[in-house]
Structures are given as C-alpha cells and as structure tokens.
Amino acid sequence: MFLWQYLSSLLLIAVHICEAQECDQMKRLNLAHAFIGTSLRIRLVLYTRENVTCGTLVSHTDLSAYPHFNLSRPTTFIIHGYRPTGSIPTWMQDFIELMLVRIDTNVVVVDWNYGATNLNYFKSVENTQGAADNLTAFIETMQKHGASLSSIHMIGISLGAHISGFVGANLNGSIGRITALDPAGPQFTGSPPQDRLDSSDAQFVDVLHTDIDSLGYREPLGHIDFYANGGTDQPGCPKTIFSGSSYFKCDHQRSVLLFLGSVNQTCVIRAFPCSSYTDFLDGKCQSCDQFGAAGCPVFGYDVTRWKDTLLRLRQTKTFFSTNSKSPFCSTSYRVDVMIWNMNNHRGYMTIKLHSNGTEAVATIDHKSSEFMKYTETKLFAQFDKDIQSVEKVSVMFSAGDVFKPKFKLRVLRIRLTHLELKETALCRYDILLEEKTEVTFRPIPCEESNF
Asked: Is 401 annotated as a binding residue?
C-alpha cells in the first residue's frame, strides 16, 4: 500500500511537470485553409519574463488560472496582419523576446490567424471588426481584475493596426498607446475615422509608414507619423517581380524590423518634422525648435519621451532615411559648399568619412544641386555609419551628363556639421574637384576667422 502511494505521488508530480512544460504559440495554418477560407477565432497567447519562450493559451473569461498574468504590470498586445498562406510571422518570436528584455510586461500575442488566413483579402478585412470586439471584451475582463487601461500598449501590424484602432475606439480612447506598423491601405484608404485607425483611439498613437504606394496607408493617422525613406521603396528590398513574394511584402514588413531595432536599441533614428520627403532630402527640415532641448523626436519605442509636445501639436508628420539592413540607422550631416567658379554648375556629390579603417558613405543624388559663386549651397548628407572621430574626408563631384565636357569645381569652402554634434563642425578650404575624381583631405575645426 505504501509503495502504491509512493508511486501515485511520483505520477502526480510527473503529470504536473508535463503540464508545466506544455507550451502554446500562434496557430500555424496552411494554403488549404486559405483556399477554403477560415472563420474568425481569437486565441490569446501570453508570454512573460517567467515564460519567454513558452506561451500560455489564456481563457477569455477566467484570468484567475494564470498567476503569472500579473495585471499590476503593463500589458503589450501584438496583433499581426493579413496571413494569405496561414504561416506564423518569422519575426514573431523575436518581437516577444525583445519586448520582454526591454520591459517587464505581459506580452499577449493576438492570434487571429483563423480569420486572417484567406485568399479573399476582403473577407479578412471584414473580420477585423469581429476581432476587435473579441479583444475589447477581453480587455474589459482584465480591467475588472485590476488592469489599468492606460498601461496597455497595442502594437498592430497592417490589418492589426486597424484592429488596434477599433479596440481603442470601443474603449473610448482610454488605452495608453497604439503603435501602428505600416497600417493596411487597401479597403481603408478614404474611410472615415470610425472605420479605421485614427489619433483619437488611444491616449497616444504613433504610426510608421513603409509601403504607402502598395499595401500601406498613405495619409497620417496618429499623433506622430513616421515615413521611412519617404514611406515607399525601402533600401535593400527587391525592385522587380522576379524576386518572388519578397517583392510584394518586403517594404511592408520592413516596418516591423525597423521597430524592433528601436526596441533593442540597435541605434537611434532621429526623425525630422517636414511637409514632404522632397523637402526633407533637400535639407529644409533640420530645425526641431518646437521640441526644445530634446531635439527632433526619436523613431520607435522611445518616442513617448516627446509625447507631451506631440499631443500639444496634435499631428506631426516626420521623415527619416535608413540603411538597407540592420543596423538601419543613418547619421545626418549638413554640408555647406561654396565655390569660386565664375559660372554656375549643377551636379551630385558623394562624400566619405574615414576613421581608423572604417568608412561611412553618403551619396547626395536625389536631384541635381546648383552651385553658385560665393553662395552657400546647403546639402543634406546621410551616412551609413556614425564615425565618432573623423580623420579624413573624401569628396567626389559628378555633373551626371555624359554628353557635356568634364569641368572642375573650385571649392572655396566645404563645411560638414553633424546634426547631433553641431559644435564639432569640420571644414576644408580651397579644394579643386575634378569631375568623377575622388579627392581626400584632412578636415580642420571650422572657425569663421578661417574664411
């Protein structure tokens, strides 16, 4: 009898261990589901610092069964978008882990793959309202158990961005923050605010646009809207349809990768308030006086540092440029060029910064710049790396016209000013630039007396 009791105890312990090791995750579907079509079903999978890689499927109504779902902590909802093949997003686990490294939060993956997986995109769009109603009821249950709506952060990708907006509207804009990563455009463009995400859906709404000419939404939707590389073609993404499915989704998905870079603080990306991408590239939007000593807002997770000012401004449209791969951040300089030539000249410049074997490159070629005698031409250079201590600078000028004879640009002064470190402007005087010939020199600190 004693032996049986002993064995029974061991079996019970083994069962509990097996139960403790059971993990859940977003449900993987396939093309068969997409062809047949799926009916909406919402699964909520919880991750915390106690179970970073082992998700817990949470009941919509009984939260008492999940002691590690600590509602005194903030809660972050991750809401995916349209899934035409039913696959799990490749970035999902990274998203969960990086969020939990950054902040002690409850991460809830809103798995609405049953509803998002359908070859009929319009059916998935219809399901966004139902998904939002389901999620709203869950958050109201959380609230009854002591959760604060202001501590909720909803991160919606594509269609998930509009689901976040519908939930926020259902809760009268009381949730703390909505981050929208390239909100879906098709079927939402031109819709009234009640039928899409808008800035009234949360106490603070920040939006990133990366594919406004295809799958994304073009117009501003939040308190601050970031347009990466103008919001259209992202560096490093395929340019032709021969690249397969990545041609269609690369720009759209870049929004997630950029945001994750801000979560793990790979680098800091400053965004510049501006009315258009052209003005941004022309260097006409380098002033951020409205933000005081904080300067231009930082894109991504930490933009809440500028929340009070952004709420006062009501709507701010910003732009930034990136590299083609991680780390995506670029470093911005203002470049002022004054020439001696009697005649005006137009052309493009490539500038390189060198330090201890490292090279940073900026190509200023979005349009032909005009250079005039004794007149400063202001250029906006964005380097692919941040060189902390510049030892040498290389400059190459090109007129870009193969049919005209080559000429020389006689530079009276070139000044390079790091927009984060304005007091460390670097200069060089009296340079002769032969067209398409790189000239390298050692810069010196700028002094007005040198000119």
From this structure: no
State residue 191 phi and psi, 5-degree precision. Answer: -75, 150
Residue 201 annotated as part of some ligand binding site: yes
Per-residue pLDDT reduced to its tens digit, 377-398: 999 999 999 998 999 999 999 9
Token pair for residue 84?
A: 């035409």
Looking from the CA of 187 toward its CB, the CA atoms found within 13 Å total 14
E strand or H helix at 383: strand 377-383
Q: Tens of pLDDT along 133-158?
A: 999 999 999 999 999 999 999 999 99
Catalytic residues, by residue number, are 158, 182, 252
**What is the distance between the terminal CA atoms of the chain, rounded to a whole angstrom?**
101
CB 182 within 8 A of CB 215: yes
Separation of alpha carbons 312 and 254, rounded Å = 30
**Residue pair 116/42 in contact by the 8 Å Cβ criterion:** no
The residue whose two tokens read 């882990």 is 97
| 302 marked among binding-site residues | no
pTM, entire model:
0.91
Query: CB of 310 within 8 A of CB of 359?
Result: no
Tokens of 68: 């590690």
User: What single string gives the DSSP state of each residue in 188-226?
Assistant: TTT--GGGS--GGGSSEEEEEES-TTTTB--S--SSEEE
CA–CA dist 110, 95 (Å, integer):
13
Alpha-carbon distance of 216 to 199, in angstroms, equals 17
- Domains delineated in the chain: 20-320 (3.40.50.1820), 331-450 (2.60.60.20)
